[in-house]
Structures
1.
Amino acid sequence: MNSTRTPLYKVGQIKKHFPVLGGILRRTKGYVKALDGVDLEIFRGETIAVIGESGCGKTTLGRMLALLDKPTGGELSFDFGQGLQDVTTLRGADQMRFRKKVQMIFQDPYTSFNPRQRVGAAMDEVLRVHGVKDEAERTVRIMEACEMVNIRPEYLQRYPHEFSGGQRQRLAIARCLATKPELIIADEIVSALDVSIQAQIVNLLLKIQRETGLSFIFVTHDVAVARYVGHRVAVMYLGNVVEILPADSLPEAAEHPYTIALLSAVPSMNPTAKEQRVVLQGEVPSPIDMPSGCAFSTRCPAVMDICRTERPVLKISNISKGDHQVACHLNKGAK
Ligand SMILES: Nc1ncnc2c1ncn2[C@@H]1O[C@H](COP(=O)(O)OP(=O)(O)O)[C@@H](O)[C@H]1O
Ligand SMILES: [Mg+2]
């Protein structure tokens, strides 16, 4: 996006290293580097689709952004309206204010609804926790949110198990919307649903995005869905964002050899020639035993000497310029 605008949320070199314990004394043997220096800027009203294979750190990134877990290092700053402000040190009421603005939805919302509580009561409780003291206002907000996701008001008297997976996801979205957030982080929220229901939910999110101007981070392993919902697509590999570019420039504009390989494995992204398909060699390295230099260097078809020793950082693409960043030594002369 336009670099002269200030972002809603800025992520600088975020790291999350989980200790690996071993032996009978349960000493720390090493660290799983789930996130290893992620940079990202999220602008108002944009949807960033985050893609990457299982285990590359997508959920961990979402959890860090929602402050559900503490990063090992790095900066998180959010604009509450008066410019970017560090949020990693927020406590008490300030942290609650942040939690209202940035909400996360998970793959299985069943686990986030209390099975013994009617869904309407659950939504009411969330609003009370967020300090909406007036009952009439809570009711209005819940009704509005349900209307936005096409849930009939009488359904609010039901229990979570009485809904289908798709309906539960719509309720989870409504519960978020009722608090009037500015950023929703949706983590694989359609992955467990039937394809037709997936399309319904994805189109619903697009509609909400258009109507409310909210920002979304939409985590998915489905490249086609990412391209459809995202304004920009961020590609992750082993705890890093390796490329971020406008969704409508895909697949042609992709530069990082990993993105190219990932896209070429999707038939709809590669309609032309079968022989263009890039088959990656070897396994994804373990995040406990990360290669030095570029994390992709062990599998990269274009690997150079420098890639094995020096980690490339995310820089503006030297080819497409503007709104396209790539972390690759092939991106020569970039700033
Ligand atoms: N609580 C945890 N403790 C230890 N390792 C974890 C924990 N959570 C995630 N990981 C590891 O961090 C890496 C990234 O995981 P995750 O963020 O769930 O990836 P994704 O959502 O992209 O599949 C994986 O190697 C995973 O095993
Ligand atoms: Mg995940």
2.
Amino acid sequence: MKLSFYGAAQEVTGSKHLLTTAKGKKILLDCGLYQGRRRDAEKKNAHFGFNPREIDYLIVSHAHIDHTGLIPKLVKEGFKGPIYCTPGTLDLNKIMLPDSAHIQENDIRYENKIREKEGKKLLEPLYDQEDAEKALAMMIPVPFYTDVDISDEVSLRYTENGHLLGSGAVNLTIQDNGSIIRLCYTGDIGRQTNSMLKLPQPFPQADYIICESTYGDRLHDDEVYSFHEIIKIITETCIDKKGKVLIPAFSIGRTQEIIYGLDYLNSNFQLPNIPVYIDSPLSTKGTGIFKNHLELFNDEFQEFLKRDKSPFDFPNLRLIESVDESKALNESKEPCIIISASGMMEAGRIKHHVFNHIEDPNCTVLMVGYCEPSTLGGRIAAGAKEVKIYGELKRVNARVEYIRSFSGHGDYKEMITFLSCQQIEKVKHIFLVHGDLDAQHAFSSHLNSAGYKFVDIPAPGTEITLS
Ligand SMILES: [Zn+2]
């Protein structure tokens, strides 16, 4: 059997790992979009490095676009096989892939307007809505902890890894010339503390592990994030100064975690009586999917459900749909909390809210997620005194707060805890993916110290024979 790495190799985005069985069947693990600087992204998303027509099966670990965002392109270029994912991932894919297609189409439309004026050749989007719909029709849901024979050589079982609703580690049992190879692809590994999802669960013993390494060099703050801190910020901003609290958050996952937290505070009469707006149609759709999968949440959440049947809803929560409503909210002087995407403030409605309020000392930008340093969010988080938004220089007069302990990824200790269900001597090799090289080297040393002798950091295009 052979294993090759085509994406998220020595970097954190664009996951694509390819297995070729003894009989020559090709199984692709994730088909992620490279997300990063425009020029790099265009280049890396243009070609897969393999022929999509030759892929027999696709297995998806979770619904984040850096793991799924090239599936419609794979289908567009001739992939015809089944796509396996958990039921939760399938439901999230149903909103996220058409949304991604919409973004691809819009980007190209904008770029083509410029190219037309310059007399240049017009470009095609990576894929469109139709390709996304075709891909969705090929998806087969596989519940957690259920063995499914995807061929006469390969059996699949998903186990929970606590990263996102529906996210799973992919456990494969593969017949290989008379012997059996057990391989686990961890997907993204969640934290060992989570306000909603179940913690990462043990997975079957593996011979080979393809392991993520995003925070291989980091320990998260020890403090468990405190909603009391958030109450304090809300009170000081909205009640004392009559300002707005702007919370940039990813539409799927982080936004629902915040809504649940605020709902929890509200049911304990701790949330000040001010409106909370969710200004992101994708977030609203995502919240609907979370409501349909309450079985995936932890015991604490299930206990709370007994007291509050609608854990993502409370009287002051208001959903903003249309652009006109969003504009009106932007102009209103009412003290409120606005949760909106994108998480790094590079695009989306949050960028307009920040544009209009960043110079107001009565407002607060409350950051709850990682922002890449070159993004608007990254610059504000780093303490920039001035930022350029839509080409206009703005002074950062608003209060900026950053709660770093929200994270979808475990730190290196938490990832080693996740791996601790394994008998170390039976693990032949760990391959690190989905991490910057520095983080991967650090994680490799931590794994060596924990007793794992053979840890590799495959470069893009590397092919390894497994037996
Ligand atoms: Zn992820």
3.
Amino acid sequence: MNISVIGTGYVGLVTGTCFAEMGNTVSCVDIDADKVKRMQNGEVPIYEPDLEFLFERNSKQNRLRFTTDMEASVTDADIVFLALPTPPGDDGSADLSYILAVADQLGPMLKSYTVIVDKSTVPVGTAELVHRRIAKHVGADMFDVVSNPEFLREGVAVDDFMKPDRVVIGTSSERAADIMRRLYAPFVRQGNPIIVMDERSAEMTKYAANSYLAMRISYMNEIANLCERVGANVDQVRRGIGTDTRIGKRFLFPGVGYGGSCFPKDVKALVKTSSEYEYDFRILDAVMRVNEIQKDTLVRKVAAHFNNDLKGKKIAMWGLSFKPETDDIREAPSLNTIKGLVQLGAEVAAYDPEAMENVARECYENISFAKDPYEALNDADALLILTEWSAFRTPNFEEMKKRLKQQKIFDGRNVYDLDTMKKEGFYYSSIGRDVINSN
Ligand SMILES: NC(=O)c1ccc[n+]([C@@H]2O[C@H](COP(=O)([O-])OP(=O)(O)OC[C@H]3O[C@@H](n4cnc5c(N)ncnc54)[C@H](O)[C@@H]3O)[C@@H](O)[C@H]2O)c1
């Protein structure tokens, strides 16, 4: 099939590349001319495991192309994917201006029947809005608008896209549903379902999924905070409940709060939708409140430890991205933490395998970036761990102790076990577990 993907960010680029890998011809459109030029020159603008190889292979075989010319891309397409940003507006609702602006342009460009697919996360009713905008220019027999929410996780996006647990397709048109089923058939050969439903239910499914996952994280953070007070170990509790098949093992890890470009904005948007329908979604209000407080948990712990005075203190930080295997720092807890520490007078020396450039671009003061994890530790009064990159899991503890001025670790991701920390002689404060005070 000929596919046009409009918006070549994390979702659009992965979507386009994976469809090309299955033999489709994909033209990716972006408004950012510089980004398009880089992609035309073979550069992958984001970090995502396994993406570069597929990007190169499909670009070479001319199944994956990049352009700023939306009309040329759309005119030939059987299917047009909208993978545009839907950032939170001032009132928390999803900002639909990117989607609707493109929808307005699309109508006059359609020359034969085309399926228009909302891949972006959009509030209930958006497929109908997009339909109305396009129908101003062409007859209803020339197109259908389908909601096809994306569930990929950054960091494992290619794998998730290639082997989705399920594909959700929201449409009331049999013709569009057939085309979408054919497109996705190679991705579900192991038998995972393609679930066809109405547009509104598909749109709601995405918000329901993300809000539920955010709720699990906030719930576990609350359990962890209570574990600290009652002297229980949240790792044991997590194992204890995660083995219950009604609960399941995933998304039960406590930490420094959820971040990223999706959970915070999607929870907010669902609350906003609720209020528009005069429904008070009490659980999600609590989920957001808990998360805001949790994002500052390391700052509170460090401040309390150093009597609220970090003047002249150097704090090393491992991990900046909102989760491992990505360079994405949108709403990352590391950013709150840096601000909090600097406000209390600290100097921060940070290391992250992929995200340092993105943080440097935000122009924070009193932060330096190290070329490797150990360099960040030189003369530091404490190390904070914000992202559980694999490279931090089995470090050289002797080297760490040599470089740190004070052998103190504040771990926001529970990367190390308590016995190891005791044996190695660190002061070690983590989430939902006893503080080890070996110093
Ligand atoms: N990032 C994720 O993990 C993820 C997962 C599932 C769903 N989503 C949803 O997918 C959507 C896209 O997210 P993303 O993270 O890929 O966003 P992104 O910001 O990484 O990418 C959006 C791209 O759209 C481009 N763009 C903006 N206006 C344009 C226009 N008029 N024409 C062409 N291109 C234009 C931007 O230049 C950018 O490259 C959002 O609704 C998001 O909620 C994201």
4.
Amino acid sequence: MPSEHLNVEMTFDINNPFYLTAVSWQSEEPFLRIQAQRDNSTTFVKAQNLFLRFRVMANQPRRCIGRIKRTEEGSSHQECDSVPTSGRYCAKCQTAENVNAANMHHAHRRGRAEIDKTMKAYLSHPHRLYLAAFRDGSIKVGTTRGSSGNTRLIEQGAWLATYVAEVEDGFAVRELEDEITEQLGVIQAVDTRRKILGHLNYLSNQELAQSLLQMSSETEKVLRERLGTRGSLIDEPWYNPMVDAEVWGNLAPYPGSIKEGAHELTIHSMVGRLAACHKTGFSDTFLVDTQSLLTLPLETGTFEVDELALQESLF
Ligand SMILES: [Zn+2]
């Protein structure tokens, strides 16, 4: 559980301008993490059924989304008020994120002695190895800290998954993860483009379950040889809460760019950072990538919203 100070707003009542800094999951429910420009305060707004009328402000600076702070207890978010230099981060946060990523990635290769003390403490904790299936048919192998909770799976927008093994620490689990990739060719990341295309043109849950089952049994075979005394096989299934939701079975791409202009949407539900949205006057449910809004100065209000150029995309 992230140690973020949880201040949940059930209605969208925030000082303008504000920034979306993340989609944050708590008990498998999505919240938008919002940072007010005025005092940098952070608010969590429940995303499900959220009515959102917002405008991207042209005359305000963008803002860095901040960085992850890892400690022995877990990870938490550190706000930042700098302007991003490239992408989503300022130079300082980008460096911190790069160091985090490199430490995580090379934890086992460099050896425990060479890892930063905080990261070492963070990794000296049981981890689980999982296989996750996405709706385009991609299957990835991944690891998550702790022996309970499904935050990693749900924040990535996995559709079906299997926890294959529980392993004594973050060093050993990464070795095994690389072993699975090497021996079975299972990838370790699925890009958002594939996730989006998967929702618009998906394989059935049954097809996905079948290929996940097959890959899980191959993975177990490898682990039986490699795991030793460092952990145990668990074979625990997981499903995204939206797996049977009708609205995720019939989505249309959002016919416009939410990076500019004024928009009015109601978020029906979310899978990872992707939102299924309703819009008054339209029967379609639109797929929106909320990550497009990161760093942008936003405001709410009663202004007119942009007309969607639906004719162009549908006829
Ligand atoms: Zn920053």
